[in-house]
Write a structure and sequence with these properties.
globular, six-stranded mixed beta sheet, 45% helix
């Protein structure tokens, strides 16, 4: 806790002063362009990985970067998505998984979390990803299987995202783009789902046109 409290003191003395005009502007509202849904894992820092500033990302975090299918029952993830899309008007939504994900390990072995009933119920939202990964032909190592489940989970949550009315309406009108990513902790690399190739590819390859400065149409993946 001392590290956290000391960090706030240093922030107020240093970074806050350096970006005081930005924080003054943000004090009156926000207009993020991207809804970033990622895992609650302590090793993931969305702003650090994307090199973005406060106000750039609307971030929603939970175990396993899960987006439950839309229902009439209110939930924090559902409410955050609805607000980001319908009120803030984000233009893109990223579902970002990561390597060595404890939630995905739990989803692959639900018996291991049997004594954590809320965790077990939550991870049921990833069950289809586990089944799809295990049904994929060919043998794989435990590491490769975990990566496969992580990727399939990102794609599954993108499918769930499409069931949310606010998102579905924006997709229908071509007003929002959906993106599936996996962050590789050890290397810092990010792989992204490419619909035409039906696989995850390096970020630089997936967004080559965007990075070149050329106009790229909104795409909906997953």
């Amino acid at each position: 806790m001392k590290k956290v409290v000391s960090g706030i003191v240093e922030f107020q003395k240093g970074s806050f002063k350096q970006h005081e005009s930005l924080f003054s502007e943000l004090a009156n509202g926000q207009s993020p362009e991207v809804l970033f849904v990622t895992c609650a894992d302590s090793r993931i820092d969305p702003n650090l990985v994307t090199q973005t500033q406060p106000g750039d990302l609307f971030i929603c975090r939970n175990a396993g970067n899960i987006v439950p299918p839309h229902t009439r029952q209110a939930g924090g993830v559902t409410a955050s998505i609805e607000y980001a899309v319908a009120v803030l008007g984000v233009k893109d939504i990223v579902i970002c998984g990561h390597t060595d994900c404890g939630a995905m390990k739990g989803a692959m072995n639900l018996d291991a979390v049997a004594e954590l009933p809320h965790v077990r119920d939550w991870l049921e939202h990833s069950r289809a990803a586990v089944e799809v990964a295990r049904a994929t032909p060919g043998k794989s190592s435990p590491h490769e299987e975990l990566i496969r489940v992580t990727e399939e989970n990102v794609l599954l949550q993108l499918q769930h995202l499409r069931t949310h009315p606010a998102v579905a309406a924006k997709i229908r009108n071509g007003e929002i783009g959906l993106h599936g990513w996996v962050y590789h902790i050890e290397s810092g690399a990010v792989t992204c789902y490419e619909d035409s190739a039906a696989k995850f590819i390096p970020l630089e390859q997936r967004y080559a046109v965007l990075l070149s400065g050329q106009h790229a149409p909104i795409e909906n993946l997953g």
